[in-house]
Amino acid sequence: MPYAITQSCCSDASCVSVCPVNCIHPTPQERAFGSTEMLYVDPRTCISCGACSDACPADAIHPIETLTGPLQQYAAINAAYFGEIPPPGDPAPNFHLWDQPEPPRPLPSTPIPLRVAIVGTGPAGMYAAEDLLLHTNAEVTLVDRLPSPGGLLRYGVAPDHPATRKVADRFARFHDHPRTRTVLGIEIGRDLTHEDLLAHHNAVIYAVGSATDRRLGIPGEDLPGSIPARRLVGWYNDHPEIDTVHLPAGRVVIAGTGNVALDIARILTTDPAALRNTEIAQRALSVLEKHQDREIVLLARRGPAEASYSLSELLELQHLAGVDLVVDDHDPRIRAALAEPTNAKAAALRDAALETIDWASTPKPGRRIVLRFYTTPSELTGHDRVRSVRTTDGLDLNTELFIRSVGYRGTPIPGLPFDEESGVIPNHSGRVTDRPGTYVVGWIKRGPTGGIGTNRTCAKQTINTLLTDATTGLLPPPPRSRSSFPRASFPRAPVPRRSIPRP
Ligand code: NAP
After folding, report:
1. Atom 1, ligand 1: residue with shortest CA distance
2. In angstroms, rounded to a whole number, what is the distance separating the alpha carbons of residues 372 and 404?
3. pLDDT per residue rounded down to tens, the chain (503 residues)
4. CB 3.0–4.6 Å: which of 6, 136, 200, 493 could bond 74 by disulfide?
5. Which residue owns the Cα nearest ligand 1 atom 22?
C-alpha cells in the first residue's frame, strides 16, 4: 500500500532525498518546488518502503491504509497531483527522472574554522545552522532576543499542530552541538550592535523573520479591541512579551484569509476540551473555556478560488467537531465560483453551507465560522473600543474584537540597509547589499511567505553564497576571539528538547 503526505507537510524535502524510487514531487530541482502547498507521493511508483516516513520531521507521511477521518482525503490529494502526468516508462516527459546532480559546493580550506553568528533561532536560522554544522567545520554562535529559542516554531505554530511543532526536535541537537554557543536574551540593535558581532565573527547571518504586522490603513485601526494577528497568536502560544487578550463572548471579526487567519479561527472555535492536551497557554485555555459560544467572521477580499489559505487548512476547518463552516451567500460570484470551481480550494467549498446571513440579528448559540468573500473592512467604529466593523460594501458587523491578519512585515536592523516598500533587507542570494560579511535568510530575506520547510532551500542558498565568499577571501578573520564574545551576563534558558503534552 503506497504512502501519502498529509496535512502537516513542511515541504523541506527531507523525504525527497531518502526516497529510493524518486516518487515524491516536486523535488527541489523541479520548477514547481516552492510553489505547491505541499509535496506529494506518486502512488503509482511508491514502493511502500517507509523511508520517507522515517525522514519526515513533521510526522506527515503515512501508509494510505492507516489514514483515518479527514486525513483519508490525502490519498486522493496526493494522486491528483500526478493526474495529468504519464506514469514512468512513457516516453515523455521526463518528470520522474532526477535532474542533473548539483556540483559540489566550495568549502573554505582555512585551518581556522569560520566563525558565524546567526541572529534568530527560528526555522530559518536553524536550517542555516544545520547546514553549517553538518557540512563545514564552522563554529556557530546562535543569538536570540528572547529567553527561549525557537522563534516561530515555538511562538507561531498553532498549539494544535503538534506534528509541525515537532520540527523543533530536528533542531534541538544543534543547540548542544560542540561547535555551537547559544546566547539568549540579547537583541541586536538594543544590547549589542552589528559591529560587535562582526568583531568576533567572520560572518553574521540575520534570520530575524518579520517582526511586525502589515496595517490596513483604515480609520479606527488603533482603537482598543483592534489587534494584529501576531498578538492573538502570541497570546495562545504564551509569548513572553505578549499580554493577555480580552476575548469577548460572541462575534470576532478577522480581516484576511491566509493560513494565520485560519489558525486563529480554528483555535478560537475548537472545543477547549480538545485543546487541553496541546501546548496552548493556560491563560488562553481558561478564557476559551469560559465562553464557548463564538462566531468567527473571516473577511476575504477575493473569491473562494483566490483566497490565500491552503487547502489543508480549509479542510481542517470543515472537519472541526461541533463547528459549522458557513459561506455567506451575499454575492452572485460566490455561487458561480462554487458551481464551476477552478481549483481544489473552491471545489472543497462546494458542499459547504451557503447561507444568506441576517447580520443584524444576534449570532445563534453554538460555534461557527463564516467565510465572507469579496469583502474588505473600511472603518472600525466605537468610542471607548471597537464596537463595529464597517465594510466597503456597506455592511456593519457588531463586534468587540477585530483582528487584522493581513500579513507580517520585517523591521530594520540598525546599521543595515532596509527596503521600506517590501519590508526586507536588500540582498543578492542572501548576501546583504554593501555590507561585507553580512547575510540574511528566511522572511527578512524574501518576505513573509512560505511555511517552515521553505526555509531549508532558502538557507542552503544563503550558506552557498557565504561559503563562496569565504573561499574567495571575502570573509577575513575577525579582530577579536569568539570566546570573548559577551554572554556570561546573559542567563541561558533551558533549550526545549521535545514537545511534552499537558497531562
Ligand atoms: P498571507 O498568506 O500573506 O495572508 C494575508 C491575508 O491578508 C490574505 O488573505 C490577503 O488577501 C489579506 N490581505 C492582505 N492585504 C489586505 C488588505 N489590504 N485588505 C484586506 N485583506 C488583505 O499571510 P499570513 O496568513 O500571515 O501567513 C504568512 C505565511 O505563513 C504564509 O506563507 C502562510 O502560508 C504561512 N503559514 C502557514 C501555515 C500552515 O502551513 N499551516 C500556518 C500559518 C502561516 P488575499 O487572500 O486576497 O491575498
Report:
1. 258
2. 15
3. 899 999 999 999 999 989 999 999 999 888 888 889 999 999 999 999 999 999 999 999 999 999 999 899 999 999 999 886 665 554 444 444 444 456 667 777 667 899 999 999 999 999 999 999 999 999 999 999 999 999 999 999 999 999 999 999 889 999 999 999 999 999 999 999 999 999 999 999 999 999 999 999 999 999 999 999 999 999 999 999 999 999 998 999 999 999 999 999 999 999 999 999 999 999 999 999 998 889 999 999 999 999 999 999 999 999 999 999 999 999 999 999 999 999 999 999 987 889 999 998 877 789 999 999 999 999 999 999 999 999 999 999 999 999 999 999 999 999 999 999 999 999 999 999 999 999 999 999 999 998 899 999 999 999 999 999 999 999 999 988 877 776 533 444 444 444 444 43
4. 6
5. 406
DSSP string, 306-375: T-SS-HHHHHHHHT-TTEEEEEE--SHHHHHHHHS-SSHHHHHTTTSEEE---TTSPPPSSEEEEEE-S-
Architecture of domain 214-404: 3-Layer(bba) Sandwich (3.50)
Q: Which of 35, 406, 424 to mutate to test the pocket of ligand 1 (most atoms within 8 A of CB)?
A: 406
CATH of 115-211+410-484, one of 3.40.710.10, 3.30.70.260, 3.30.565.10, 3.40.50.720: 3.40.50.720
Query: What CATH number has the domain spanning 3-81?
Result: 3.30.70.20
Task: Please state the domain extents for the chain.
Answer: 3-81, 115-211+410-484, 214-404
Residue 167 has which C-alpha cell? Answer: 520540527
Distance CA 41, CA 92 (A): 19
